[in-house]
Specification:
The protein is α+β, with helices and mostly antiparallel strands and 385 residues long. The protein folds into three domains: 90 residues, Thrombin, subunit H; 97 residues, Thrombin, subunit H (Beta Barrel), CATH 2.40.10; 101 residues, PDZ domain (Pdz3 Domain). Helix content is 21%, strand content 33%. It is built from eight helices and 20 strands. It has a six-stranded antiparallel barrel. A six-stranded antiparallel barrel has the order 7-8-9-12-11-10. Strands 13, 14, 17, 18, 19 and 20 form a six-stranded antiparallel beta sheet that branches. A hairpin with a 7-residue loop joins strand 7 and strand 8. It is elongated, with a radius of gyration of 34 Å. It starts with 19 loop residues before the first helix and ends with a helix.
Length: 385
Amino acid sequence: MSIDPYPRSYYPASSRPTRLPILLGIFGGLLGGWLLTTQVKGRVNAPDAKPRPVAPRGDLTQSEKTTISIFESAAPSVVFITSLENVDQGFRFTPTEVPRGAGSGFVWDDDGHIVTNYHVVMNSSQVRVTLSDHSTWRAEIVGGAPDTDIAVVRINAPEADLPPLAVGESNNLQVGQSVFAIGNPFGLDQTLTTGVVSALGRTIRSVNNRTIDGVIQTDAAINPGNSGGPLLDSGGRLIGVNTQIVSSSGASAGIGFAVPVDIVNQVVPQLIAHGRVIRPQLGIVIVSDDLARRHDIEGVIIQSVQPGTGAAEAGLRGFDRSEDGDIILGDVIVQVDDFKVSESDDLLDELEKHKEGDVVTVKFIRGGKPLTARVRLQVPEASRK
């Protein structure tokens, strides 16, 4: 026999164990639910209910028609790119290819050349390109330019499936003009976003930390997966290649950047022809920027001049020794044409604007005195191979 240590009067009234209130509560709930359901059914159900008539919307605005036309014209030229890499599984005899990234691209010509970002395909063992008709093709990497984050791959698809985008120009863009981005954000293919040119002349860093100047800033939504896709103007022409975003979350925050088409149109033909960018040169070997900064020198210091080059013909000088054995600093380049040169990136950026045989005006400091020379640019034979 067990004895309850607490007399019945000890429990508060609300907690005294009894079944009657519980049973009454359940019954009341069921009854209330049945009554409510019956009332609702009687009030709402109408056997003769019909769809509401559709109100006419009128014609599309001219802006909408333009946007639709641009998308319909350009979308067949935009592709989805998947890059794969070899992963050693340990227990397997051969490595396994797994996806390492995805991005966008666009048809450059009907020979199967596809343009995308360098960072989309770098370090990949295989690249696959999916066209707008959802056919997938294995691609070969033709060439890459990490300095400008541009790469070209090629697929062996029928010419009819390869409509090239019309190429525009970026040197006459204006802040506020409409732009259209097409790509595959988060793997969602054939996505259109719209916006305006937010700013011009921006500078960003490429994958190898080189600066890319003259970059287009836009508020058209650009998200992961848009990289390598085209930025178009209101004429449906290519004006840039979407490449980076500024975001704390990894998603679009209304600040995207595109490599301007004027750069793309210089780089891509060289990648197709040579697999890399062949830059015309002065014919000099330069000192590292770190060494120049340690000596508080602004400009590019010439370490040596290569014989038979434009720099040698113009009389530029590298490091030398005086009669008593002291080292004489080489010429310090501070300007090329009208472009100020503060570091090696500045010099390389300016030379990229020229072609072999061009003559540039080089301003330099020698022994504390400013001097000027006319230098013929050339491409070393070793760079052609």
